[in-house]
Amino acid sequence: MIVYRSSKRQLLSVGAFLSILVIYYGGKSILTTIQRNKYRPDSLAIHLILNKYFHKPAFGLPLNLTNPYKYDYSEYGQSIYVDEIFDGKENGTYIECGAGDGETYSNSLFFEIRRKWTGVLIEAGRKNYDLLKMKKRKAILINAALGNKTELVKFIEAGFTGGIDKNMEKSHKKWIFQNFPYNLTNSKQLIQSFRFIDIIEAVGMKVVDYLILDVEGSEITILETIPLSLYVINIIQVEFLVKMDVEKTSRKLDKIKDIILSTNLYIYFDIIKNTDALFIRKDIFYDFEKRSTKPL
Ligand SMILES: *[C@@H]1O[C@H](CO)[C@@H](O)[C@H](O)[C@H]1NC(C)=O
Ligand SMILES: *[C@@H]1O[C@H](CO)[C@@H](O)[C@H](O)[C@H]1NC(C)=O
Ligand SMILES: *[C@@H]1O[C@H](CO)[C@@H](O)[C@H](O)[C@H]1NC(C)=O
Ligand SMILES: *[C@@H]1O[C@H](CO)[C@@H](O)[C@H](O)[C@H]1NC(C)=O
After folding, report:
1. Residue nearest to atom 9 of ligand 3 (CA)
2. Methyltransferase FkbM domain: from which residue to which, for each copy (predicted)?
């Protein structure tokens, strides 16, 4: 009874405080408050991530790879390229979203093996995640999709080309139909999706050297909800290719550039194989530029 009354009084005083704010600032302050909520960590989501969708790094266990002697596991040499920009930096950190099985086409595995980096591997597909757990990566594993909301989403599992159903372009789905032995109906699953901000808060990461987004359609939705100025993310690699649709591919790249460059923190650096765009934080870029123009 007492608790109820005091919480009601608190509510009343919060309400009074808010109306004073509205009177004082007009509608504008409320709008900024709503916009800011997009970037506010959600403790329930964080709890869910840590208690249900999380596996610890396999420290102390040997990697269990199919090809243990490969140097670069990335699809088009992305790892080596990024390693050059970082000048062989050791002990860095990564977040790879769309981690697959953690070996095939992995952008981060090179850094784990050769540069002693650690990080977070996010993979939504159940088959991929089962394989990923067996690799004994020295990374936190999270079995979820990245999105702009904590929600259950329909996920189409299709090897390295799977993604959230509602964010996937028609041409990409068509491509999956043509290239995968199973059909879209039987491979659709309900998967938990989280926002980037809740994942990074859950794992307590302060600096991300290398963020990889390879999520087959959800890239823009995700980027729109990452507060790029609140975290230090040094290199962002985003897949922009929309399979079998040249026009949508170019529009998507433009949109990705708009979002990242509007922060004023990044340089649009390069595209790799007409698939991945690389953005580099300005300070990292200037260091790299100084090194590469230094006379021998
Ligand atoms: C990386 O971490 C290891 C182990 O903590 C340490 O011995 C090494 O000096 C570090 N390397 C750099 C370049 O900081
Ligand atoms: C290593 O991976 C293989 C599949 O590639 C699996 O059969 C085996 O159980 C894994 N070993 C461990 C210790 O997880
Ligand atoms: C897809 O697979 C499901 C389950 O096996 C089956 O019922 C359905 O007829 C298949 N659809 C097509 C278009 O082949
Ligand atoms: C999430 O993304 C979808 C599609 O891109 C959009 O319609 C929706 O408004 C977004 N929601 C939030 C909370 O940003």
Report:
1. 185
2. 96-240
